[in-house]
Amino acid sequence: MTEVLVRPLTRDVGELAEKMADLLASAVDVLEVTAGLEAEGIGDRAARLYGYDDVFLLAERLYEGSVRRPSRAKKAANPWVNGTGVLHDAGRYALRGLLFGLPGAGYLAVHGLLGQRSAGLVLTLSLVLCWPVSQGVAALAYSRREFEDTKRVLRLGLVYGLPFMIVVSVGIGFWHGASAAVVVVACAQSFYLLSASAALVTGGELLLLLALLPGVVATFAGLPGQLLIVGWAVTGLGVLLIAVDRTRVPKAHRTANGGISWIAVWTITPNALFGLVAGGLLTFTIVSAYGGYGAPPEATSAAMVALSASMGPAEWVLYAFRARGHELLVASRSVREFRFRVRLTLIDLMGRFMAALAVLIGGAIVVADLPDSSIGPFVCYLLLGGALVIALMLQSCGRNAVSLGVCAATLALEAGVLLVARPDPSKVQLTGAVVLFTVLLVHTVTVLGRATAHR
Amino acid sequence: MNITLVTEGTYPHAYGGVSVWCDQLVRGMPEHDFHVVALTGTGTEALAWEPPGNVTVEPVPLWGPRPPGRGGASREFEGLFRVLLDLCLTGGTPSAGELFPSVLRGLYDLGGLSELLAGEGPVEWLMAAWEGRDLPEGVEPTVHDALTAISLLEHALRPLARHVPRADLTHAVSNGVTVLPALAAKWTHGTPFCLTEHGIYLRERYLGYGKGYSWPVKALILAFLRMLCAAGYQAADLVTPGNRYNQRWETRCGADPGLIQTVYNGVNPHEFPEAAGEPDRPTLSWAGRIDPIKDLETLIKAFAIVRDDVPEAVLRLFGGGNAEYREKCLKLAADLDVTGHVTFEGRVEEIRDAYVAGTVVMLSSISEGFPYTLIEAMTCGRATVSTDVGGVTEAVAPNPNSPEDGECGLVVPPRDPEAMAAAAVRLLRDPEERAWMGTVARRKALEFFTVDQAVASFREIYSNLASGVVKA
Q1: How far is B244 from chain A (nearest CA, A)?
Q2: A57 touches chain B (CB under 8 A)
C-alpha cells in the first residue's frame, strides 16, 4: 500500500462537524455528506484519523449527530425584472411607445404622394410584408445570450432583410403601377423598420429619438417642401448611422453562435408569421378599400398611430405579467392559489392596458378632429390592440401556435366574408375584432393561469 | 460487432480525459462499429473530435426543444409517476431497489414521456406529495420548486425518448442519465451492457446540486439520481471503473462486487518518451484544466513554503480553463509574495512539454478518477507529488512485479499545503531519489498503463459480454 505523507494531527469529530455545519444542516442524506467530505479532501485515510474505518462511516456519524435545518436558498433573481426601478422602466416604455408612434409623421410628410395611384396600397403592403421580417429578426436577436451575437443577428437581418424588402417593394410598385417616388418611400419605410428594430433591441431608444426629431419637427412645423426633405434626409442619415453602430461587431468578438441556422429560422417563424397576420388584421379596411370595397373610416389612421404608440405600454404589460407570474410561483404554496392569483393579475394588467389604449385612441381621434362616427373604429382598434397584446402574452409564454392560429383564422374569415358577401369592411373588421378578443381572452385566462405556462 | 457507446457531455463534443479515453477505445478497435449516442446540451454543439470511419454519432439533446409525443394525461402515467414521486420523497427505501426499475420501465413503455411531463398534472401531484411529508424545519415547497423539479426530471428522462436500434452491446461511459439508453436497449432487445465510470457520477451530482437549488428540489432530484445509479449498477452486466477506489461508491450504491472489473486508463508510450535531463532551475510543474476542483490554491500555498527551503524554485502551470479561478490564484500568489515565480503558461501544443518542464510534476486535485496527467508524467519518467484522491495511490503504488523498487511517486492528503511542500522539497533536494522514482514510475507505467492494455481489456470484455460470458 502506498504511504501517504500525513502530518501527525489530532482529529476531532466535533470540530469537523462544526467546520461542516452548513453541509450537515442542508444535507439530504448520508451520501451528500460523504461527497462533501471527499470534496474537502477527507477520504478513507483521513476518516481513519477520526477513528472510522472509512469516509462513509464518518459521514454517517456526522449526519446522525446533526439536525437538518437548511438555510433558505438565496432568492433567485426574477428573470423578468431588470432592476432599474419603476420610474426608469415607465420612462423607457413610454419612450418606446413614442418611437412606435412617431414614424407616423412620415406619412404626413409624404401625404402629397399618397394621392397618387396605388401609393397607399404599395406603402401598406410593403409595410405589412416588412413586419414579419423585422419581428422575426428581433425575435432571433433576443434569443441570443451574448450581446455581440444579438448585434450580429441584427446586422445579418439588415444585410439580407433590406435587399429582400427592396425587391419586394419594387415588385409591388411595379405590379400596381406606382411611381418611382412611391417605391423609394416604400423602401425607406423598410429601411427604417429594420434599423429601428436594431436600435430598440440593443437599447438605442434615445439615439433613435434624436434621429427622428429633424424629420418629425420639420413635418409638424409645416416647413416648406425642400426643408421638409432636408429634415427627413437628416433623419435617414441618423438612422443609417444608428443601424451601422448598433450592429457593429468587431471580428475579435465574433462567436460561433453569431450566425443564423435554418433551425433558428424555423424557431422564430411563428413570430414572423404573427407579424404578417397582425399587419393584415390592422390594415384590413385600408387594403379592402384598394380592392374596391369602400373607403376605410376616417379615424382609421389616427387609431392606428395611437395603437402603435400603445405598444410601449404593451411591452410593460408583458414584462409585468411575466415578472408577477414568477413572483407568484415562488410565493404560492399550492397550484390552486397560484392559478387564482395569476389570473387576477392577468385581468388587472389587461384592464390597465385597455384603459391606456382607450385614452390614446380617444385622444388621437379628438386631436385629428374626426367626426362622431368614430365610435366604430375606436371600439375596433381598442379590441384589436387588446387582442394583439394577449397574443403576445401567449407567445411570451411559449404558446405560439394558438395565438397565431386564432389570429390567422380571424383574418381568413374576415377576408372570406368580404369576398363572398361584400359587406362593409369596417363592420367585418369590428366583428372580427370582437370575436378575436373574446376568444383569445378566454383562452389566455385559462391557459396562462396554469403554472406550466410560466416555466 | 455493433456497439452502442453512450456518452454525456464528453466525446465527441468536448475535450477532456473521458473524451481521450473514448477516442482511444474507438480507434483501438477498428474491427467494431461504434454508434456513439452523445447526450448533449442543445444538440447544436460542434464536434470537438473527428470520429474515425467505424464511428457514427447520434446527438441526443437534453435541453433542446421537447421531443414530440402525444401528451395529455393518462391514468397509467399518473399511477406510475405518483409511485416514482413517492419513491423519491421517501428517500429510496430498501424496496426501491426493485420498484424503481419497474416504474422506470413502465414509463418507458408508455412513450411520449416529455409531453406527458409537460402537463399540469405532474406539478399538482408533486405538490400534493410534498404536502403529506415530514420535511426539515423551515422547508416549505413552492409551486416554483415543483415546476423546477418536474422540469429537471423531464430533461433527465429524455434519453428514453429515442428509438432504440438493435446492437450487440451497449457501453455506457458513466452512470446516471447515460445508462437510460442502455436500460432501454436491455428492456427492448435484451442487449447486454457494460458500465464504465471514470469518476463517480453520483458523487459529482451531490456536489453539483448542493448549490443553486432549493432543498426540496435538491432532495427530490438527488433521490431520483441515486435510484437511477443503483438501477444502472444492478442492470449492468459488468461495471468497469477506472480505478479500484471508485468501487467503494459503486458497491455502496448497489453494484455486485463480483461484477466489477477495474480497467485502468492508458497512454500511448510513443507520445511520451522518457524526458532527457531536467530543467536548469528547480521547477514544479502542473498540467490540466484550471478549475477549483484542481485546487491550485493549495499548490500555490505549498510552493510558497517550498521557496523557504529552495529559494530558486519556480512553479509553472500549464493549461487553460476557468479565467475567474485563474485570477483568484494570481491574487493568492501576490498575497504570498511569489508572483514572479508562479507562471500560468496557458495551453501547450504537446502536453509532454509540460511534464518535461518540471523537475517534479505536481497534482493537487481534490477529486480525480485515474488521472491521465499522472500516468503521462510517469511515462515521461518524472517524479511526482500527488494528492490522495481517486486512483492516485493505485497508480503510484510499488510495481507488484518488483515491489522492492518502492513507490513510483509521493502522495499527500488533499488540501494540505504543508504536507505537499514537504514532499516537493524532499524530491527537489534529493536528485537520486527523484531520478530513481522517475525510472520506476516509467517502468510501471509502461507495464500497466498503456493504451494497448486498456483497449485489449475492453476487446476481451466486449467479446465476453456479447457471447453471454461475464467474467469480472
Answers
A1: 13
A2: no
The CATH number assigned to the domain holding B114 equals 3.40.50.2000
**Domain with B226 in it:** 1-266+450-472
Sort out which chain A residues have CB atoms less than 8 A from B142's CB and list them. 329-333
pLDDT for A284 equals 93
A341 close to B (CB below 8 A): no
Query: How do residues A189-199 score in pLDDT, each as one tens digit?
Result: 999 989 999 99
How many CB pairs below 8 Å do chains A and B form together? Answer: 151
End-to-end CA distance of chain B: 21
Residues B273 and B342 in one domain: yes
Question: Residue A2: what pLDDT?
Answer: 61
What would the pLDDT profile of B391-450 be if each residue is shown by its tens digit?
999 999 999 999 999 999 999 988 899 999 999 999 999 999 999 999 999 999 999 999
Residue B459 sits in the same domain as residue B434: no
Q: Read off the pLDDT of each residue in A251-278 and give the average, rounded to a whole number.
A: 77
Indicate the pLDDT class of residue B202, thresholds 50, 70 and 90. very high
| A451/B142 CB distance under 8 A | no
For residues A92 and A289, give the distance between their C-alpha atoms in angstroms, rounded to a whole number: 37
Does one domain contain both B236 and B273?
Answer: no
Residue B78: name the closest of B20, B39, B46, B121 by CA.
B121
Tell me the domain boundaries of chain A.
Answer: 13-64, 94-267, 294-455
Helix (H) or strand (E) holding A42: none
Residue pair A386/A349 in contact (Cβ under 8 Å)? The answer is: no
Residue of A115, A433, A171, A94 whose CA lies nearest to A280: A433
Instruction: Decide if A335 and B219 are in contact by the 8 Å CB cutoff.
Output: no
Q: Do B215 and A28 make contact, defined as CB atoms within 8 angstroms?
A: yes
Instruction: Read off the pLDDT of residues A12-33 as tens digits, 9 standing for 90 and up.
Output: 899 999 999 999 999 999 999 9
Q: How far is A454 from chain B (nearest CA, A)?
A: 9
Clarify whether residues B443 and B454 are in a common domain. Answer: no
B254 and B342 together in one domain: no
- The interface predicted TM-score of the complex, written ipTM, equals 0.89
CB contact under 8 Å between A451 and B151, yes or no, is no
End-to-end Cα separation, chain A, in angstroms = 53
When divided into structural domains, chain B yields a total of 2
Whole-prediction pTM: 0.85
Verify that B224 and B328 share a domain, yes or no.
no
Residues of A in contact with B136 (CB under 8 A): 68-70
Chain B residues inside the 8 Å CB shell of A73: 212-215
Give yes or no for A330 touching B (CB within 8 A).
yes
* DSSP per-residue letters across B356-380: HT-SEEEE--S--SS-HHHHHHHHT
